[in-house]
Design goal:
alpha+beta, 4 strands, 33% helix
Amino acid sequence: MKLTHRGYDIVATRERALGGWTEVYWHACRKRDGYMLFDGFGDFSTPREAVQYMRGVINVLIDQFRGRVDRLDDAIDAKFAATTPAPTTTHPTPAG
């Protein structure tokens, strides 16, 4: 099951696990750039339950920013920028 909710792609599927049983796998990614907001597996008996849960989580997160998706996106971008190391400008020299 796949849908877009408030700027986020939500996907939930039932797949066979390596152990032979079936499991519900789910994730939510920002549509703009593919940033994965969250993902997981298990905890739900159907993909529909997983989608309903993820829609609720996205709604709560957006509501924390007064209903503005752009403010949530800015907060995510700021947190991502703060935890991502800056690229190095020097390159290692070959040995020899």
